[in-house]
Amino acid sequence: MGTGVSREARLLSTSRSLRRRDSPAVTVACLSNGTGSSQQAAELPKNFNFADEEPLIYERWESSGSFQPSSTASGDPFTISMPPPNVTGRLHMGHAMFVTLQDIMARFQRMRGRPTLWLPGTDHAGIATQMVVEKMLREEGRSRLELGRPAFEERVWQWKAEYGGFITQQMRQMGASCDWSRERFTLDSQLSEAVKEAFLRLHDKGLIYRGTFMVNWSPSLQTAVSDIEVDYTEDPGTLFYFKYPVAGTDEHLPVATTRPETILGDTAVAVHPEDDRYKQLVGKECEVPMSGGRLIPIIADKYVDREFGTGALKITPGHDPNDYEIGKRFDLEIINIMNNDGSLNAAAGAYEGLDRFDARKKLWADIEEAGLAIREEPYTMRVPRSQRGGEVIEPLVREQWFVSMRPLAEPALTAVADQSIRILPERFARTYNMWLENIRDWCISRQLWWGHRIPVWYVFPDEAAASASADGRSSDYVVARSSEEALDQARSRHGEGVALRQETDVLDTWFSSALWPFSTLGWPDEASQDLQRFYPTTVMETGHDILFFWVARMIMMGIEFTGKVPFSTVFLHGLVRDGQGRKMSKSIGNVVDPVGVISQYGTDALRFTLATGTTAGQDLNLSLDRVLGNRNLTNKLWNAGKFLQMQLGGCSEAELAELAAADFSSADSLTDLPLVERWVLSALHQVLDRITAAHEKLEFGDAGRTFYDFFWAQYADWYIESAKTRLYSSDPAVSQTTRKVLLYCFRTVLAIAHPLMPFVTERLWATLPAQSQQLLITSRWPLHEGAVDQQALAQYQALQEVVSAIRNARAEYGVELGRKIPAQIVIADKELSAAMQAEMLVLCSLAKLDEVQVSVSSSLDASASAGESVSLLVRDGLEVRLPMAGLFDVSKEVARLNKQREKLEKDLAGILGRVNNSKFMDKAPPKVVAETMQQKADAEQKVSAIMQKIEQMSELARA
């Protein structure tokens, strides 16, 4: 059967024309409104008005308490901690993906009867939020420095109160069934206490310390930033070649760099120990250009790439991470030439005060003037840039707070190795292991005002000493939960006169996020009921790009502070790309706004597209054509609901109660049913098993595709059409049995579709005769007890094959669509023959056969002339003979086929022209020759096939 919108229109039109004459236009089915009362169901409108209906449905879910874990549900709780999006955020396709997948899990487990908690929240997003508010202040002509820290923090809280809930409202649009009564924010007071407690415990164990190391530095924000906040771009640049004079000689060492301004911070020049060009210079010194005669050593290190540049590498430990490591190996001096704002400092001598890029130009011009320049050449540079505005990130050595990670990494590695935590897809376990085996200490301090202020107080002998401190820091400090506790500690160690200054830095946003699975449940209060009931959580679903930055840290912190892994399964989804497979980018202009998609196609269509395109760890190419196709699926589901409502329209309350009570979940319940009903119930139960297994294995795409294939290709296109022959039977018992099966099937269809398409299924559920006063979201997942009849599946498949063969023949020979034709069906298997005869009305209806002139037998009618019939071999032991003579205009059909033949022969001639051209065959690439030969074979096959059709037509004409 066709699968387009026109097919749906025909379905609806047919069902209307077949409506029993005594059926009223308005349904009188008794249904549940989810509030404990019954109401009469008005006839469903032509289409599902998602724009109006979805907000109303969501409000019913939320107001009914459906999102909260049931206190009476049995079994182990199912818990998901939502990855907290930035409070500054707006919904993008990455958010839409995780909301869809996590909501599918939550809805499925809730329907399975498990106490289900999906805990939502947002992240304070230190850098992003501070930037937004600072931009607002600039527009007002003010700055945060003018406001001062307390007033600025208050301003940010005001902004959060006004705009911070925007993304959570958009997640509601996606149908997120999370428990909003438990919504958390990473700067909530309870979570702030958890952060302080974690810091104190790590510090007490010696795992937090203050040290000087290289960090990613943002000159505009004047703070360290994490690796995940740094993007790398391929930019055109210049490789500058210049001379390093060797001290005490006339020789020079040629060196190349992309950043001439950092020459002023060089503390060595390195060559490869096996490079014969420079072996004799190792151990000597050379003079740093434009430095006033400063000498540095020439060293040998195998890190140097002899093929890059000149094979001699300037070493700047203060401004390059690789040079920093070399500097540690050789105990080189670290010279910092840059201020926090990216300008050069006093160590740069005459270049002090210049911006780093201006200094590059000035220094190179001076090198040229000094005769030390060799040449310049174009070079593509891999440039680190801030995600927040795109500025070039500067590697700088700064004193910061760090967490010693190796002691935390070991238990986290063990947890994955012993399968306490399962990572899906499994290949990412190797990535996880590689990161943790090579882990470096974590810089957790940020030079911001918005965030968790580090709970460290520096101790001074008195207030005068504290006031005299340039940065408010001293070598003596205390770590405490509050300023009062800090003062008590300091006085106990140094007496009453001490003065304190709290650390001005805040913690990296990822520090509080690392505590998310347990801090949101009440930790460090071990007596918290939520912590005891819902921790460890069950699944962590997130993007594979933050496996290390977030997931690994949650695992480390969870084991460290609770002694338990924070979750047992990690499911990693990929990126959502555009239809061409490109990463979505504002610069390309290919960003797809999920809210815009929802407004055009509805939430269910977008969710179903994201779910069915999902394979763990794989990127998804999002095509709006696919969204449209799934919008058509929503329409198909709606029309099936309308069809059912029409069939129930004339039923009494008693009849409706009988229909609603019908249960076909046991094998015995199928025994006395006709073939069509036994088939659809068996197929439905098989699909139920596959979809249930797919959900249990987190194979969302398989669950969605399995539903799509069954509902569209089997239930709607075959069963509904098959059922029509009995729904309008003169025998009330026959029609009532069919209604029972139809209702049972559609109720099950809605239930298994609900996790993926919650809105339309909930709306249609409300039209069904009430079995209970319950919304679909909290109804139980369907079950069956071996109710699958394999013989019925096989026999109805044979019927489908017969119908399809006849339909194809009708189309091939141009028989009018509505014309009924005779047929002789020959079946060797007696049981199949009996089943086919029992379903003769269905067979004739589906294949448009003349009931009076159809026969089912075990052998061909010898009196029928072969020339008058078309023989269709459906399968071994199953043949159909169609007497086609007189059923269509043979001469007209032959003329049409001859026109097709002429076109095909013309196409073949063009291909043969290339094949017979020796120059083409000799010079064309092998791939092109192979494609041409395949085109020749295909064209010849098409010509042969149409010639065979013409011959068949001619034979019919002669008959």
UniProtKB/TrEMBL annotation:
<dbReference type="GO" id="GO:0005524">
    <property type="term" value="F:ATP binding"/>
</dbReference>
<feature type="domain" description="Aminoacyl-tRNA synthetase class Ia">
    <location>
        <begin position="57"/>
        <end position="623"/>
    </location>
</feature>
<dbReference type="InterPro" id="IPR009080">
    <property type="entry name" value="tRNAsynth_Ia_anticodon-bd"/>
</dbReference>
<keyword id="KW-0175">Coiled coil</keyword>
<keyword id="KW-0547">Nucleotide-binding</keyword>
<dbReference type="InterPro" id="IPR010978">
    <property type="entry name" value="tRNA-bd_arm"/>
</dbReference>
<dbReference type="GO" id="GO:0006438">
    <property type="term" value="P:valyl-tRNA aminoacylation"/>
</dbReference>
<dbReference type="GO" id="GO:0009791">
    <property type="term" value="P:post-embryonic development"/>
</dbReference>
<comment type="subunit">
    <text>Monomer.</text>
</comment>
<comment type="similarity">
    <text>Belongs to the class-I aminoacyl-tRNA synthetase family.</text>
</comment>
<dbReference type="InterPro" id="IPR009008">
    <property type="entry name" value="Val/Leu/Ile-tRNA-synth_edit"/>
</dbReference>
<dbReference type="GO" id="GO:0005829">
    <property type="term" value="C:cytosol"/>
</dbReference>
<dbReference type="InterPro" id="IPR001412">
    <property type="entry name" value="aa-tRNA-synth_I_CS"/>
</dbReference>
<dbReference type="InterPro" id="IPR037118">
    <property type="entry name" value="Val-tRNA_synth_C_sf"/>
</dbReference>
<keyword id="KW-0436">Ligase</keyword>
<feature type="domain" description="Valyl-tRNA synthetase tRNA-binding arm">
    <location>
        <begin position="889"/>
        <end position="953"/>
    </location>
</feature>
<keyword id="KW-0030">Aminoacyl-tRNA synthetase</keyword>
<dbReference type="InterPro" id="IPR013155">
    <property type="entry name" value="M/V/L/I-tRNA-synth_anticd-bd"/>
</dbReference>
<dbReference type="InterPro" id="IPR014729">
    <property type="entry name" value="Rossmann-like_a/b/a_fold"/>
</dbReference>
<dbReference type="Pfam" id="PF08264">
    <property type="entry name" value="Anticodon_1"/>
</dbReference>
<dbReference type="GO" id="GO:0004832">
    <property type="term" value="F:valine-tRNA ligase activity"/>
</dbReference>
<feature type="coiled-coil region">
    <location>
        <begin position="887"/>
        <end position="956"/>
    </location>
</feature>
<keyword id="KW-0067">ATP-binding</keyword>
<dbReference type="InterPro" id="IPR033705">
    <property type="entry name" value="Anticodon_Ia_Val"/>
</dbReference>
<feature type="domain" description="Methionyl/Valyl/Leucyl/Isoleucyl-tRNA synthetase anticodon-binding">
    <location>
        <begin position="677"/>
        <end position="821"/>
    </location>
</feature>
<dbReference type="GO" id="GO:0002161">
    <property type="term" value="F:aminoacyl-tRNA deacylase activity"/>
</dbReference>
<dbReference type="InterPro" id="IPR002303">
    <property type="entry name" value="Valyl-tRNA_ligase"/>
</dbReference>
<dbReference type="InterPro" id="IPR002300">
    <property type="entry name" value="aa-tRNA-synth_Ia"/>
</dbReference>
<keyword id="KW-0963">Cytoplasm</keyword>
<dbReference type="Pfam" id="PF00133">
    <property type="entry name" value="tRNA-synt_1"/>
</dbReference>
<dbReference type="InterPro" id="IPR019499">
    <property type="entry name" value="Val-tRNA_synth_tRNA-bd"/>
</dbReference>
<keyword id="KW-0648">Protein biosynthesis</keyword>
<dbReference type="GO" id="GO:0048608">
    <property type="term" value="P:reproductive structure development"/>
</dbReference>
<dbReference type="Pfam" id="PF10458">
    <property type="entry name" value="Val_tRNA-synt_C"/>
</dbReference>
<protein>
    <recommendedName>
        <fullName>valine--tRNA ligase</fullName>
        <ecNumber>6.1.1.9</ecNumber>
    </recommendedName>
</protein>
